[in-house]
Design brief:
single chain, about 450 residues, alpha+beta, six-stranded mixed β-sheet, four-stranded antiparallel β-sheet, globular
Length: about 450
């Protein structure tokens, strides 16, 4: 056997009667659906339950698999310490999954655990599974990462492969709430994207059209304030290449947070459902189109990164570049993106080299290897990177926020020796106030501090 089924479930502590204190009745529909999902899961008699939790250990560029033989936790953080959950880990499965990741040069393993106790994103699914347990099962707990959606899906295929190699009956639980912003009176308010996300994700998960999961834009996910999308995507990867029978059990958003419950029964192989291969083929085709459209600025940024990552040496300045790149000096920012997320960005406000071409080469290398927010780019990532180059225009002082425009001008904030810069026309940064707040944060300037403001225009090449 291998992957036998799965469930998409939320994790509001309110579901636990000792936490809800009667208020759990407002999400009775979710409670009943959850109980039904637990019954369906245990009827399959899994040997191992893989729980994917947004509240387990999480790193920007690494998937954490919980180590150890057994673990416990309770709901004391929610004033219900008398309710405890314990489980035995499937150490053999964990070892094989970590080894497969290492062999595949994939960033996942058991390193870096900070708190071994069970998180509520894991305990709540186990609470409902344990209600219907017939045959004891072991658990594999996995956290999410800040990597792209395709990497989450890819990790799911590794879980599938390990399940097949060990001949395990494995059930996958994707723990995660939907949007936290579906009602104005909810605890997090309302965003335009919240209800839209919930409607779309329930359609995707309710129809098992899992290829769509990797197409959700990152900015849209952030604005929707969801917490389960990556869990759902890993689970979908575990189902890759298999027929899936889907049962949509419930959706509620009465608390202002979306809760969806779906169950999945996995059956025969079906090559038409190899969504990762289809996604990768589409990405390759789009990359070829993008590369064919790249101008000299972007092509040089790519060459600088690829040359340095593969040889640890800077590339030479090509002789056939436009005159402006060879003879003009200017500040330049080079930005790298992967799977729709920033992968590195370094630049210079004022020129530090003899020409724009040299500036691009130096800053391209720095964006790939010296951005303190990210690990250095690895060779296996090069094909997936997208590049943009911003050439800065004249910097001019401004008197007030009224002189700024987030789509047209970049902003520089200065207080004493601290200076922060933000480029214009960035996804999710729609106002000068947002620009200034982020620039202050980057510079380590207090949010309410008075700063000197400057603006600049850029010519963006992408």
């Amino acid at each position: 056997m291998a992957i036998i089924g799965g469930a998409m479930v939320p994790h509001p502590p309110l579901l636990i009667p000792e936490v809800g204190g009667g208020e759990e009745a407002i999400i009775e529909k979710t409670t009943k659906a959850y109980d039904e999902a637990g019954r369906r899961a245990m009827a399959l008699r899994p040997e191992t339950v893989v729980v994917l939790s947004p509240h387990s250990v999480m790193y920007r560029d690494y998937f954490h698999i919980s180590p150890g033989a057994s673990v416990a936790g309770d709901f004391s953080a929610f004033r219900a310490g008398s309710v405890g959950i314990s489980c035995e880990y499937d150490e053999e499965f964990v070892r094989h999954l970590a080894e497969k990741a290492q062999e595949s040069d994939f960033p996942a393993g058991t390193r870096g655990e900070r708190d071994p106790r069970l998180d509520h994103g894991t305990m709540i699914p186990l609470y409902f599974l344990n209600r219907h347990v017939e045959v004891p099962f072991k658990v594999v707990r996995i956290g999410l990462s800040g990597l792209g959606l395709a990497d989450h899906y890819r990790f799911g295929t590794m879980i599938r492969d390990v399940a097949e190699a060990l001949d395990r009956r494995v059930f996958v639980v994707a723990s995660g709430d939907l949007s936290h912003k579906v009602r104005a009176e909810g605890p997090y308010g309302l965003s335009e994207e919240g209800p839209v996300y919930d409607e779309k994700i329930m359609e995707v998960m309710g129809s098992a059209n899992f290829g769509e999961l990797m197409a959700f834009p990152e900015v849209f996910l952030e604005r929707a304030a969801e917490c389960g999308h990556r869990s759902f995507t890993i689970m979908a990867g575990a189902f890759d290449g298999r027929d899936v029978e889907t049962k949509r059990l419930s959706y509620e958003g009465v608390t202002g947070v979306g809760y969806g419950v779906c169950t999945y029964l996995v059956s025969e192989r079906n090559d038409d459902r190899r969504f990762l291969a289809r996604y990768e083929a589409r990405e390759r085709a789009e990359r070829e189109v993008r590369r064919a459209r790249e101008d000299d600025y972007v092509a040089l940024a790519r060459k600088s990164v690829e040359t340095y990552v593969t040889t640890k040496e800077a590339c030479d300045v090509p002789k056939d570049l436009p005159e402006e790149m060879l003879n003009r000096r200017a500040g330049v920012f080079v930005s790298l993106h992967k799977d729709g997320r920033l992968r590195g960005c370094i630049g210079t406000i004022f020129p530090t080299t003899g020409a724009i071409a040299n500036e691009i080469i130096e800053n391209g290398i720095s964006a790939a290897t010296r951005d303190p927010r990210f690990q250095p780019v690895e060779e296996r990532e090069l094909d997936a990177l997208e590049y943009s180059v911003d050439v800065l225009g004249e910097i001019e002082a401004v008197e007030s926020i009224a002189d700024l425009d987030a789509s047209r001008y970049g902003v520089i904030v200065t207080r004493g020796l601290k200076r922060g810069l933000l480029l214009p026309n960035l996804d999710g940064v729609d106002t000068p106030e947002a620009q200034i707040a982020i620039a202050k944060q980057k510079a380590g300037i207090r949010p309410n501090a008075t700063v000197k403001l400057e603006r600049f225009e850029v010519v963006r090449h992408e």
